[in-house]
Amino acid sequence: MTSLPIQTALDASLDFVLPAELEATRPPEARGLARDEVRLMVSYRANDHILHDRFREIEHFLEPGDLLVVNTSGTMNAALSATRADGTPLEVHLSTHLPANLWIVEVRLKQGERTFPFSEMQAGERVPLPGGASLHLLTPYSAGEGRLQPARQRLWIATIELASPLQEYLASYGFPIRYNYVPEAWPLEYYQTVYATEYGSAEMPSAGRAFTPELIARLVARGIQIVPLLLHTGVSSLEEHEPPYEEYYRVPVETAKSINTAHANHKRVVAVGTTVVRALETVTDVDGVTHPGEGWTRLVITPQRGLRAVNALLTGLHEPRASHLLMLEALAGREHLRKTYAAALQEQYLWHEFGDLHLLLP
């Protein structure tokens, strides 16, 4: 893929002003709501009809035979406090665990409770980590030929020396990644979906956060099928908005079969989150047939490429200029997105991982 289509699409992507008061700064539970009481905007792209409800009523917008595809990746305590050799306070974000025990990491400057991009790290630096561990920065991460590069060096390829197994170490010394719009620290359970099965995501696949066991049981009883896949999501690029980089995925045989059967029966395939779309589109061929598989995906979905595997999407509300908006545009078109985002702003929906949700239907 060349740089021009991505650059053009990013420059032309949906842009708007997100008021600070529409950033979800706390989990819904801390705002007096249950998980499934966040708001739900439902939009039908065929006629631009838009409805507003609570997420726990989602079953009324789904039909028997619909197929929901969820990402069962669990969120890690992927942030660690650190100090540079010169005394600079840092926060290390463990993003992606690569083969050969390498990591993609982000090193951020810590100022009080806030963190900021930090571009002064050098290849070869060793950074002490809590509990006697250490981080060794090997080389700047390269997004690959033809892909947009951030204005500052944000990501590094690194090795990490630990005295205990990874998840045990992170349970003792790590904490969930949070950005400056979330001023308070929250325990890891606030960053997990109820159906997570395998730790590996640096940040929560948040589109599925509002599901509860009771709601899932009601959906299944209604004849709505739910199938899993796995994609370990890396850190966000809130400041630079560069396209996503490679992430590990696994699509099981039964999930691929269920998707192909749903299409054959003219049923809706609803991706729960953009991570699900990315994994499925990676293993779906030009004829629309989804195959099982696992590996690493660098796929960037744009309107020019289009979608093959899904025809509906449950997602959060994305920041201005975020690359995920290109994926939404590939599904729904620019004008439908303009109308739905205008409605979300007017109705004061909340953004980010603790915010409200949008169900895009045919």
Write the layout of secondary structure elements.
Blueprint: H1 3-12, E1 39-44, E2 49-54, E3 67-71, E4 73-75, E5 79-83, E6 89-98, E7 102-111, E8 114-117, E9 126-128, E10 134-140, E11 155-161, H2 166-173, E12 198-201, H3 213-221, E13 225-231, E14 247-251, H4 253-264, E15 269-272, H5 274-282, E16 293-297, E17 312-316, H6 324-332, H7 334-346, E18 357-361
Parallel strand pairs: 1-18, 3-13, 3-15, 4-12, 15-17
Antiparallel strand pairs: 1-2, 5-6, 6-7, 7-8, 7-11, 9-10, 10-11, 13-14, 14-16, 17-18
Structure report:
- This protein has seven helices and 18 strands.
- With 362 residues, the protein is of the alpha/beta class.
- The chain folds into two domains: 249 residues, QueA-like (3-Layer(aba) Sandwich), CATH 3.40.1780; 95 residues, Thrombin, subunit H (Beta Barrel), CATH 2.40.10.
- Strands 2-1-18-17-15-3-13-14-16 form a nine-stranded mixed sheet. Strands 5, 6, 7, 8, 9, 10 and 11 form a seven-stranded antiparallel sheet that branches. A two-stranded parallel sheet has the order 4-12.
- Strand 9 and strand 10 form a beta hairpin.
- The relative contact order is 0.21.
- Pfam families: Queuosine_synth.
- InterPro entries: QueA (IPR003699), QueA_dom1 (IPR042118), QueA_dom2 (IPR042119), QueA_sf (IPR036100).
